[in-house]
Predict the structure.
Amino acid sequence: MSGIADVAQRAGVSKATASRALSGSGYVSEKTRARVLAAARELGYVPSTSAVSLATGRTNNIGVIMPYTNRWFFAEVLEGIQAALLERGLDLTLYIAEPGTEGRRRIFEDFLARKRFDGLIAVGLEPEDHEIEKLTAIGRPIVGVVSAGPHAGVVALDEAGAARRATEHLIALDHRAIAFVGGGAGTHYVSVDLARLAGYRQAMAEAGLEQSIRHVPSPDSLPGGYEAAVDILADSRSRPTAIIASCDEVAAGAIIASRRLGIHVPAALSVVGIDDHEYAEMFSLTTMRQVPRDQGARAVEMITAQIADPDREPEKVTLQARMVMRSSTSAVDPARAASAADAARGR
Amino acid sequence: MSGIADVAQRAGVSKATASRALSGSGYVSEKTRARVLAAARELGYVPSTSAVSLATGRTNNIGVIMPYTNRWFFAEVLEGIQAALLERGLDLTLYIAEPGTEGRRRIFEDFLARKRFDGLIAVGLEPEDHEIEKLTAIGRPIVGVVSAGPHAGVVALDEAGAARRATEHLIALDHRAIAFVGGGAGTHYVSVDLARLAGYRQAMAEAGLEQSIRHVPSPDSLPGGYEAAVDILADSRSRPTAIIASCDEVAAGAIIASRRLGIHVPAALSVVGIDDHEYAEMFSLTTMRQVPRDQGARAVEMITAQIADPDREPEKVTLQARMVMRSSTSAVDPARAASAADAARGR
C-alpha cells in the first residue's frame, strides 16, 4: 500500500507539503494541492483518518444515539440519517441506549466522553437529568429528533396536533364514543404518547365530549393493540364506535382483533392511526402521515450546519402530519352511536 | 478540560511516560501505570482517540455493514452486535448498504477504504464480485452473519434444515397439498429464501410429493404474505391444506388473509413459519425459532478473536433452528386433503 512518502515523491513535494494538501490544514497553493491529490488518486492512497483527525480536529463522523433500532420509527429515522451522511462523506457511529440498561449507562459514562464525533443526533432519547449533564459536558453540537437535548436543535412532529386532527375527523363523522388505545403501558417513547393523548383529550373537550374520554393503555405494538382491542370490543354494551390508536401498529392490531370478533371495520367500528407505517395500506387504514426518513435527513442538515458554524442559533423545526384517507373510518350509525355512548358513560 | 500534561504532572511522570501508560503501548511499570490511570481518573481526563489510534494502530471500532436496518432480522442482529461491543468498550460504525443504491456504491468505493475500524461484520450482505474485491483490499478481518464474505468467519442458520423440518412436521400431520409462500419476488435476502425453498423441496421430494411442490412468490413481509395468500386461498378447489412461509411475517399475513376469507386456522389451513418473530405468539404461530441477537453477539466474539490473532483460522458456525409448537398447525381432514391435493395437481 502507498504511504504519504510515495505520494510526496510522485507529486515532487515534501512530505509536510503533501500532508498539508491532503488534510486541508495549513497553506498550500491550489496548483500544488491539485498535484498532490492527483498523485494520491493515482497511487490509491487513502490517508490515515487518525492522522487527519489529529491535524484537523475533525472526525468527519456523526454520533447517533437512540433507545432502539428494532422499531419502525427508529429504523426509518436511522436510514434517513445514514443516507444523508453518505451523501456528505460522513461516517455514522451508532449508540443504542435502551432505557434502564447497563449498556445505556456505559454509553453515557464512557462512550460519549470519547467524543469520536463532530456532532451528535439524539433520536427519541428522553434523557434523564444526570444524562443531560453528560451530554452538555461533551461540548459538541447536538440535534434532537422527537425530543430536545441540551442546547440542541430539534426536528419534531406536532404530535398533539396529529392526534387532535384525527380525533376531529372522527367527531365530524358523528362519533362520540371514541377511545384512545395505546401508550401508557410503561413502554418506550413516553413523551410522544402523552402528546398524542393530550391532542385527543383536547379535541374531545372542545367538542363537549369530556365525559366520553377513554384511554386504554397498551404497548405501542401490533400485539399490544390486538390485546387491548379484544378487551374493549368484547362487551357490545361498552364498545366504542371509533378508536384512535397511538400509532399504526396499534391500529393494525385493533383491526385484526375486530376481524376475529366479527366486528366490521368501518361499518361497526372506525379506526384511525398515526404514522403511515408500511402496514397502513394493507389494513386500508386512515392515518396521520409522518415521514421519519425525512426527519433523519433534516437532522443531518441541522447538525452539519451547527458544526460548520458553532455560533449559529439552534433551530426547532415542527412538522405537521398529513391525513391519508383510506377506508377504515366512516360515519356512525346514529342509533348505535347513542347507545354505545350511553353505555360508555355507565347509564 | 485536562490534557495529558496535567495528568503527567499530577502523576509525577513525563508526558511520554503518561502517554505510554494511557495508550497501553510501550513499557511502563505496573506501579507507574496505576499512578497515571489514577491521576487521569481524578482529572476526568479522556484521551484523544485519534492520538491513541495513531499510537496503537487500533481504532477500537468495529464496522457493521448490512443492506437494511428496518427489518426485524437486521435490527435484532444489530442490537445483539451493539450490546456485545458495549461490553467490550468498542465503538460501532454503521454502513447501511441497500443493494443497487448510490449509497452502497459510495460505501464500497470510499467509506470502507478509510479503514476506520479494526474489523468488519457483514450481515446478509451478499456482495457482488467487484464488492468482494473491495472487501479483500481492506485487509481487515471480516466476519459474516448469514452469508460469507472473503476470508471470513461466518455465523449462519441452517436455513434449508429449518424449512425441511417445518415441512416434515406438516407431512407428519398428513398434509400433502403444502405450498411454500414467500421469496423470489425480487426482494432482499435472496440466498436465504433459496435455501429455505430448497429445504421445502427436499422434504417434499423425500416424501414422494414432488408433484405437489408449489412455490408462491411474494415479498418477505406481512403485506406480501397477505396478498399472496388471498390469491391462493380464494379458489377452494386449488387451495392447499397447509402453508410453509418463507418467514413469520409472511405467515402472519397468510393468517390474516385466512381470517378475512373465513378459513379457520388450523382446522382448514395449517400455517408454519420460520424465525419466531415478535408477532409469532400473537398469531399462535408454530415456527422454527432463530435468535438473531445471539448471532450478532457470536459475530462480535469471532471478530474480536480474529483481531487479537490475525493468523487464527476463520470459523464457520452453523446454528440449528428449534421448533416452537403453538396452535397454527393440526392434522389434516383426510377427505379434504385428498381433494385439495388432487385439485393442486390439476386433476
Observations:
- Chain B touches chain A through 52 residues (CB under 8 Å).
- Chain B has 13 helices and twelve strands.
